[in-house]
């Protein structure tokens, strides 16, 4: 769906995450933020991880980056990085590396991350130029003059017209969109193979959001980057994603290509999320919101975590966790609805109508991209 923005990708994985489980020690007890997650990021492609707030998207991304913090514990799993620069083609399990080695050799080098709030990355007291030069010199052996030239080149690459002027400015003198461009320039300073974007455009207005997404897509094409987007915004997903993973209560409940997810969603949570997307053309009687709230991840979860909010829940949903069913080579779903003995359900008419409208909008977005 997103080939117009991202270009096509080959199917070799650059990152393979398997059975990843992550908890946080809290005053109330252990909070199970990520509960057995598997996914692959293919080289040169874009994966969007989508879900409501608190579903574990950032915890997953931060674990990959070694940024989990002191309260985090890894309960299980592997995160294999298939380094294209390595002499051998043996993947490295990032979870076996010391934090020091992870930070010095991989994160910020081979894998870079950008966040929703650029100010969390930028130093308000340092000029833009100095910050980019520092990032360059951390990763590459270049003298001061060459670093400055590369910094100016990076500023131009991220679409900053008066690079020499911006080089001397400070973060507070720039708009939100410009700051996010600087953060992208800093991320690119290490020449990464993977870019993880955690809600990179949420704080920006729609026009600037589109420009930043286009910028990331252009850089991705030029540098054959593999990209993970963390988002709750299906508008962003429709524009950028080759593959989509839907996250709920620490698990990936549905995974597929963007077409699988937008045109053939199966999990009731995916359908509900798609139906909640606000649209100016929808009258308020046809708006859908998911009833209830996500589970407390400190408490044990029995059965399917989405069952209490799912109007199609079966008895077994409250008792046993569903296995992952494979619908096609690209599409998997964790739901008892896929069991051969499960009843065939009619989708709620409002939900069905919202899904059709969402699909029409997605088609519209894809057509516009190709212009
Ligand atoms: N450092 C931490 N200490 C304790 N709990 C944490 C910590 N970081 C995250 N959590 C908890 O882990 C769960 C998953 O959080 P996470 O930030 O990964 O969700 P998310 O899907 O990225 O949501 P959002 O879009 O709001 O960032 C939440 O219940 C959150 O409160």
Automatic annotation (TrEMBL):
InterPro entries: AAA+_ATPase (IPR003593), ABC_Ni/Peptide_Import (IPR050388), ABC_transporter-like_ATP-bd (IPR003439), ABC_transporter-like_CS (IPR017871), Oligopep_ABC_C (IPR013563), P-loop_NTPase (IPR027417). Its main location: membrane. It is a peripheral membrane protein. SMART domains: AAA (SM00382). CDD domains: ABC_NikE_OppD_transporters (cd03257). Pfam families: ABC_tran (PF00005), oligo_HPY (PF08352). Residues 15-274 form the ABC transporter domain. GO terms for molecular function: ATP binding. It is found in: Cell membrane. The keyword Membrane applies. Keywords: ATP-binding, Cell membrane, Membrane, Nucleotide-binding, Transport. PANTHER family: DIPEPTIDE TRANSPORT ATP-BINDING PROTEIN DPPD, OLIGOPEPTIDE TRANSPORT ATP-BINDING PROTEIN APPD. Belongs to the ABC transporter superfamily. This is ABC transporter ATP-binding protein. It comes from Paenibacillus wenxiniae. The lineage of its organism: Bacteria, Bacillati, Bacillota, Bacilli, Bacillales.
């Amino acid at each position: 769906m997103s080939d117009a923005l991202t270009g096509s990708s080959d199917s070799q994985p650059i990152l393979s995450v398997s059975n990843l489980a992550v908890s946080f020690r809290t005053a109330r007890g252990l909070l199970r933020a990520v509960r057995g997650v598997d996914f692959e990021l293919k080289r040169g492609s874009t994966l969007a991880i989508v879900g409501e707030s608190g579903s574990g998207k950032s915890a997953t991304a931060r674990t990959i980056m070694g940024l989990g913090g002191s309260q985090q514990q890894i309960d299980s799993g592997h995160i294999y990085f298939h380094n294209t620069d390595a002499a051998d083609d043996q993947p490295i399990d990032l979870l076996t590396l010391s934090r020091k080695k992870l930070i010095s050799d991989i994160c910020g080098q081979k894998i870079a991350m950008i966040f929703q709030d650029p100010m969390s990355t930028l130093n308000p007291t340092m000029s833009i130029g100095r910050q980019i030069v520092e990032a360059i010199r951390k990763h590459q052996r270049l003298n001061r003059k060459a670093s400055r030239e590369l910094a100016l080149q990076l500023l131009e690459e991220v679409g900053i017209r008066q690079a020499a002027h911006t080089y001397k400015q400070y973060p507070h003198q720039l708009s939100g969109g410009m700051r996010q461009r600087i953060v992208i320039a800093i991320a690119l300073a290490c020449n990464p193979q993977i870019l993880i974007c955690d809600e990179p455009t949420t704080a920006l207005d729609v026009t600037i959001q589109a420009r930043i997404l286009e910028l990331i897509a252009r850089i991705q094409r030029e540098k054959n980057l593999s990209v993970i987007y963390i988002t709750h915004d299906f508008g962003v997903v429709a524009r950028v994603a080759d593959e989509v993973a839907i996250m709920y209560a620490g698990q990936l409940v549905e995974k597929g290509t963007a077409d699988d997810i937008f045109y053939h969603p199966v999990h009731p949570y995916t359908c509900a999320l798609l139906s909640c997307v606000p649209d100016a053309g929808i009258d308020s009687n046809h708006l859908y919101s998911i009833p209830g709230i996500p589970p407390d991840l400190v408490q044990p979860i029995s059965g399917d975590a989405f069952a209490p909010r799912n109007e199609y829940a079966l008895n077994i949903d409250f008792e046993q966790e569903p296995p992952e069913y494979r619908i096609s080579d690209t599409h998997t779903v964790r739901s008892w609805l896929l069991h051969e003995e499960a009843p065939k359900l009619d989708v709620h008419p409002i939900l069905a109508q919202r899904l059709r409208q969402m699909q029409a909008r997605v088609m519209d977005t894809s057509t516009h991209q190709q212009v």
